[in-house]
Amino acid sequence: MASERLSRRSFLIRGGAVGGAVLLGGCDQLSQSPDFRDVLYKAEGATERVQRLVLSQRSLAREYTEADLSKHFKANGSTRVADPLYRQALLGGFTDWRLKIDGLVERPTALSLAELRTLPARTQITRHDCVEGWSAIGKWTGAQLGPLLQSVGLKPEARYLVFHCADKLGRTGNYYESIDLIDAFHPQTILAYDMNGAALTEPHGAPIRLRVERQLGYKHAKYVERIEAVSNFAMIRGGRGGFWEDLGYEWYAGI
Amino acid sequence: MVSSAIVPQPEIVYRHSVMVRITHWVNAFCLLVLLVSGLQIFNAHPTLYFGEKSEPDRAVLSMRAVEQPDGSYRGITTIGSAQFDTTGVLGLSRDASGEYEDRGFPSWITLPSYRDLATGRRWHFFFAWLFVLNGLAYLIYAAWSGHVRRDLAPTRSQLRHIGQSIWEHVRFHFPKGEEAKSYNVLQKLAYLAVIFGLLPLVVLTGLTMSPAMNAAFPFMLDVFGGRQSARTIHFLCATGITLFVVVHLVMVVATGTWNNIRSMITGRYVIETEEATHGK
Q1: A60-247: which CATH number, 3.90.420.10, 3.30.70.360, 3.60.150.10, 3.30.1330.40?
Q2: What is the CA radius of gyration of chain B?
Q3: GO terms for molecular function, please (chain B) (predicted)?
């Protein structure tokens, strides 16, 4: 055996077969290596910078017509909220429910659903693109976030908004999401309370959900109960700015 | 026995420039990662549609695990109205621990092998960037160096004799000598179709799946017939590229594996001269 010399050809062929077998396992290990993941994460920064460059801050997501509405709009992620306070509020028609806005704002506030409904609103028929790959078209009505933020006054150091939600996915803490001020002040960014002409149902995020139309579905937080203005989210939960982000999804999910 | 004195030495030509060789291998690696990570992403919703939205009753392709009357599951792939039992491969296959799992493509062809959409996306978008930058570097070089005009554009004479070329390929008779110094007409057309057709199309349909890009360039939704159509065309492009690579590899083997691979690594390609062929 020691004297048997592998020809270059058979060496390469054997190498190829072994390589193929270890490739899968190797890639799985690479996928889980924190250092390698940090390399892969570089792509997100490139995507964000380039998209922010080509995307005017005001360019709108396409709006559709009533005829385009999905027959069935899939409710994904949480579809029922276990929290007893939430269940009580749901039973009471959210009359005593309040949306808290705090953090780096000049005038922390708590709005009732009735007050929210009197604010400058927008109705839009838009396409919801789930990160899984499906799309559905729905009609959303809600308070525009931009004017609301102007009325509470953001402090100069505020850079992001964190949306704290009532639901839990799995056994981990409450759902949360965050967006930057470019998306927050976009005219189509609304706190939606109506869907397809009726009050939001529980599976779709009652009483309000965020619509941030130039982003994928998981950024559109449901069951929002508190909006916190922050300068960064390093100290919040997993530090990546959202429930799915802490599990490895992109914070800037432009694609 | 033929004396070596009268057998001409094979002619060695310098076939591929260093830029073509580097971009070729980077491209090959990117396409492999993009395919397997793309299948991981596809598995998150292994159903395709045309149009803007996904109506379950209007799927053009789906891979599902369907419960049978006896309580067992079968992997069912549906294309249009045709149904196929693809248990073990599509719709239902064994995961790494040997358990049957409801998944579109099997674990041995997805990256990572286990179900993890987030990580599949990370791989896909990192290598998408590398693929695009590498492709741009190639295109700039190809235009600047005359590579497209010199090596890829078919000549009039080649186009006139395309029928003959197809016939020779069908019989696995490949050009030798002087003719083998340049790509044949089928090679040229295939490379042009992939470089200027399939590869740009796969990038553009990929970008059309981005809600942000839709807002920046809404006409792309119209060009591809909607977001879900773009997703379906992206999948078809990936299928087309995979078929091209398979045929490409078959041709590599059929026309001299080591000569081809060496020329793609070192640039040097051995031309079997007519005389040398006759001398054997």
Answers
A1: 3.90.420.10
A2: 23
A3: electron transfer activity; heme binding
* 8 Å CB contact of A31 and B41: no
B35 and B57 housed in the same domain: no
CA A130 to mean position of chain CA atoms: 10
Read off the pLDDT of residues A165-192 as tens digits, 9 standing for 90 and up. Answer: 999 987 778 999 999 999 999 999 999 9
Q: Which residue range forms the structural domain that includes residue B256?
A: 11-45+115-271
- Cβ pair B117:A131 closer than 8 A: yes
Ordered per-residue pLDDT tens for chain A, 255 residues: 344 454 555 555 555 555 555 677 788 999 999 999 999 999 999 999 999 998 887 799 999 999 999 999 999 999 999 999 999 999 999 999 999 999 999 999 999 999 999 999 999 999 999 999 999 999 999 999 999 999 999 999 999 999 999 999 877 789 999 999 999 999 999 999 999 999 999 999 999 999 999 999 999 999 999 999 999 999 999 999 999 999 999 999 999
| Residue B277, domain member (yes or no) | no
ipTM metric: 0.91
Position B110 in a domain: no
Domain boundaries, chain A: 25-54, 60-247
* Reported pTM: 0.92
Among B52, B210, B212, whose Cβ lies nearest the Cβ of A127? B52
Average pLDDT value for residue range B233-258: 97
Across the interface, whether the CB atoms of B216 and A59 are under 8 A apart is answered yes
Give just the sign of the alpha carbon dihedral B10, B13, B19, B23.
negative
At A4, list the tokens: 């048997």
**DSSP code, position A155:** -
**Based on the structure, what is the number of domains in chain B?**
2
Distance from CA of A61 to the nearest CA of B (A): 4
* Sheet (strand B73-79) strand order: B47-48, B61-67, B73-79, B82-85
Q: Which residue of B has its CA nearest to A138?
A: B53
Q: For residue B128, give both structure tokens.
A: 């998408």
Which CATH number do you get for residue B208?
1.20.950.20
Helix, strand, coil tally for chain A in percent (to 5): 35, 25, 40
Contacts of B206 in chain A (CB under 8 A): 255
